[in-house]
Amino acid sequence: MGNLQSYINMLRLKLLFICLVLSVASVKADEGMWIPALLKKYNIKDMKKAGFKLSAEDVYDINKICLKDAIVGLGSKSNPTTFTGSGSFISEKGLVLTNHHTVVSYLHKHSSEENNYLRDGFYAQNKEAELPAKGLTLSRLIRMEDVTDQLKEGTEKLSAQEASRLMNTRGKKLVKSVKTDATIIANIKAYFGGSQLFLQVYEVYRDVRIVAMPPLKLGKFGGESDNWKWPRQSADFGILRVYGNSNNESLKYSITNQPITPVNHLELSLKGYEEDDFAMVYGFPGGTKQYLTARAIQQVAEVKNYHGIKIRDAKMEVITNAMNSSEELWLKYSDYMAKTSNSLLRWKAESRGIEKLNLVKVKQEEEKEFTNWVNSSKELKLKYADIIPGIASCVERLDTIEKLNVYVLEAGIKGSNFTSFAGTFDMLNAICSRKNVNEKRLNKELRKLRVGVSNFFAEYDLETEKKFLKVMVKLYDENVGDSLKPNSIIEARKKYNGNFDKFIDEAFEQSIFASKDKLNDFLKYFTKEDAKKLDNDPVFKLCLSYFLINKDHVMRQRGNIRKEYGKYHNRYLQAIKEMREGEKMIADANRSLRVSYGNIKGINDNGVHYPYMSSLNDLVEKNEKNPKIYTAPKGYVQTCKDAINNSKKTIPTCFISNCHTTGGNSGSAVLNAKGKLIGLNFDSAGNGLVGDYKFMPELTRQISVDIRYVRFVLENQLKAKALLEEWK
Asked: How many domains is the chain partitioned into structurally?
């Protein structure tokens, strides 16, 4: 009987194991941010199983117009293909749909107390009223090509350094061989630690203008209280228009002042969706770290996130108090508050997910599997046995320096906007320290600084910045050893018995940075002898010291160790690819075009089930329960109530799916099974942020604003009738 029971137990264990394997296999189809050019090879069968109705060529093809031709990445004038967000063409006249939060800073530059576009929203009644998004660029991928063999040919017998040098030379020649000017640029992207290389060619649009954006209270409904959470009701969208590049080949670049006719634009679907319907996210995800080791994950949670959270919590208290004190400060610090809180809440959610998933242990099990594979042959041992110990050694040495890096940057250099501003005066000091002062260069620097002074005092409030300094100096003192502190902090602790508020107040009383007028006078009557005033200025000395500590004790040391770590990590990726040869593997996101797919699904979190869709009813209910947090523009809630009463159907606002996304996917088009636009990605549900390190379908949900809600806001709040006529 005992033997029979043992046999039954063994069968049960086997059955349980098979069920687990099958459950993992069933979610694999949804996992990952996939390279569009490889969908036909690796993904299309799984996409079809999930409900997709089109072909791989409909998603990506270089011989015909396809969905990829409607997708754009958001970049900057200096780095057009270092994408910070995504968007998509939605009309034949160059309209582009993206997130409110990805482009609100460009609207902020046009805002004032008289024209408070952040508060009131913006809609250009005609093309002449559209506002330039200065510095913003959009880029469309023309083609991508696997050039691995081409770049690596004949490098097998070379040293790693020689091979890298030869491949870089070949890569540069290849990029130059592509027609490159101000509108066509190319780069080479590495995947799996450099074991796979793609040439990518883009068309860049440099004349981008703002057409419509909702008020901040709708675009970020619920503010920071709802960030990284579900359910949501945010109208997180912005509409831009692209104007044309010149076809005149004699000109490197010029503006025609006419909207472009894009190669393709997305079709709109207003039919909606049901739970379990197919969904696909198409955009430019920034970066994931799916292959970090257990020790590296531990450092993320216990060093980087832990101390970053401590610092930004303190900053948020200062920002919140300032913004609550006056309309002027609300306007000045809205954008800074959003940027500060976004990373703060992300770090908190990441750390919760790491703990909830017990990710350190999960990674340890993965490393055991890898080590067993390495130990399976002498050849593999010779190639890869040093990788895991090497990574562990690097991470161990990085622990202390990563903590210092957090405090130098978050509490020091970026501890206040003022610190970065004061640091710009260092060049003036450097120019005057030379034996023969270049007067022309000196005058140019003075003119530049005068503009900087004007901009700083227009954008920020000095008293608020002083409060930042007081809090950040105290945090730095409490968490960093004396050998790595500015001398002024050590002296202040002794002189003021740790009263850093008094230290900062008295430092400003003695400083040229005490006021805008005092600073302008300093620059107006400046002579090279006045540079000594900077050397002795207590505020300048404090601010500059952070930059010097970063230079002398962080950048070089951290850079050297991370370079060593990077070599081990790349070899680790290459080894894993070899270990899983023939399997479908996720390539970490790297700011290149990717496809994620899955299904629209609700979520169970901490014993509570949340539905896959939110509605206007939810918005009204939140507003009525807590109007201080869930505020809306005057009259908007009544508009929603009227719409609810007049409609026979639920009016959706947002929805969630189990597609795998990350930062950079903000503004990505969310498409249905027929490739039609149903939503706009803007966030992830909290615990799912651990998906950057390990995708977990039960935890991971991306959040999208429903395209029908975008149109509702355009119609009922912005009164954008002409825009709705264009976008059909």
From this structure: 2
pLDDT digits (tens, 9 = 90+) for 317-368: 999 999 999 989 988 998 898 889 888 988 998 898 899 889 999 999 999 9
Q: For the range 340-343, what are the long-range contacts, defined as Cβ-Cβ under 8 Å and sequence gap of 24 or more?
A: 340/312, 340/315, 340/316, 341/224, 341/227, 341/312, 341/316, 342/101, 342/227, 343/308, 343/312
Q: Which is nearest to 105 in space by CA: 137, 133, 71? A: 133
252 with 298, same domain: the answer is no
Cβ atoms of residues 32 and 660 within 8 Å: yes
Task: Judge whether 491 and 435 are in contact, CB under 8 Å.
Answer: no
Query: Which of 524, 547, 576 lies at the terminal end of a domain, its last residue?
Result: 576
Distance between CA 246 and CA 252 in Å, rounded?
8
**Which one, of 66, 20, 15, 22, lies nearest residue 40 by Cα?**
66
Report pLDDT digits (tens) over 483-495: 999 999 999 999 9
The residue among 576, 610, 643 that closes a domain is: 576
Mark whether 201 and 346 lie in a shared domain.
Answer: no
Full domain range(s) for residue 601: 49-289+586-726
| Burial profile 56-78: b = 16 or more Cβ within 10 angstroms, e = fewer | bebbbbeeeebbbbbbbbbbeee
| SS3 assignment, position 63 | coil
Distance, CA of 36 to CA of 668 (rounded, Å)? 14
Q: Report residue 613 CA to chain centroid gap.
A: 25
Q: What is the largest CA-CA distance in the chain?
A: 100
Asked whether residue 32 is assigned to any structural domain, the reply reads: no
Are both 561 and 669 inside the same structural domain?
Answer: no
Express each pLDDT in 511-524 by its tens digit: 999 999 999 999 99
Which positions ≥6 away from 483 have C-beta within 8 Å? none
- CATH number of domain containing 176: 2.40.10.120
CA angle 365/369/375 to nearest 5° reads 135
Residue 127 lies in a domain: yes
Q: Specify the 3-state DSSP secondary structure of 599.
A: strand
User: Is there a contact between 246 and 256 (Cβ–Cβ < 8 Å)?
Assistant: yes
Ramachandran sector of residue 319 (left: φ over 0; alpha: ψ -120 to 50; beta: rest): alpha
In a shared domain, residues 608 and 638: yes
Residue 145 CA to residue 188 CA, distance in Å, equals 9
State the average pLDDT over residues 173-179: 90
For residue 3, tell me if it sits in a domain. no
Q: What is the pTM of this model?
A: 0.83
247 and 330, same domain (yes or no): no
Strand partners, 207: 243
Residue 696: which region, alpha, beta or left (left: phi > 0; alpha: psi -120 to 50)?
Answer: beta
- Candidates 43, 19, 44; CA nearest to 32 is 43
- What separation in angstroms does the CA of 98 have from each of 265, 439, 452, 655? 13, 47, 31, 17
